[in-house]
Specification:
Number of helices: 5
Strand content: 15-25%
Number of strands: 5
Structural class: alpha/beta
Order of helices and strands: EHEHEHEHEH
Shape: globular
Largest sheet: 5 strands, parallel
Length: 129
């Protein structure tokens, strides 16, 4: 993950710190958004990201709304994989996320090694439409 730019869209400060700490130890550059609309603004205005980690339960709009809104942004700014990071292990939610274009679905809680392993699988992977 050395040098990769990763956007974390997550409202829980403890989870933000965990993800940020783990990814920075792996050499990633991490940008954090605490709201869905903030994440969408960063995607539209910032340099491209190599990976987006997205929570489904956000305070302003849902992660589903963010994922749906990313399709036009991807066409304009270039693709990057989105990995859902959710407390829900519901298989229907996982399937829905993958059908909507998410590259992966990780259920919280997860350990640091497993997080790195799972995210590394998606960096540089082709994006699903």
């Amino acid at each position: 993950m050395n040098g990769r730019r990763i956007l974390v869209i997550e409202d829980d400060p403890d989870i933000q710190r965990f993800i940020t700490t783990v990814l920075k130890l792996e050499g990633a550059q991490v940008v954090v958004a605490t709201r869905g609309n903030e994440g969408l603004s960063l995607i539209a205005a910032d340099d491209p990201f190599d990976l987006i980690i997205l929570d489904l339960a956000l305070p302003d709009i849902t992660g589903w709304d963010v994922l749906d809104s990313l399709k036009p942004a991807f066409r304009q700014k270039g693709h990057c994989p989105v990995v859902i990071f959710s407390a829900s292990a519901d298989m229907q939610k996982r399937e829905k996320a993958l059908k909507m274009g998410a590259a992966g679905y990780i259920v919280k809680p997860v350990g640091a090694r497993e997080l790195v392993k799972r995210l590394t699988e998606h960096i540089g992977a082709p994006v699903r439409d």
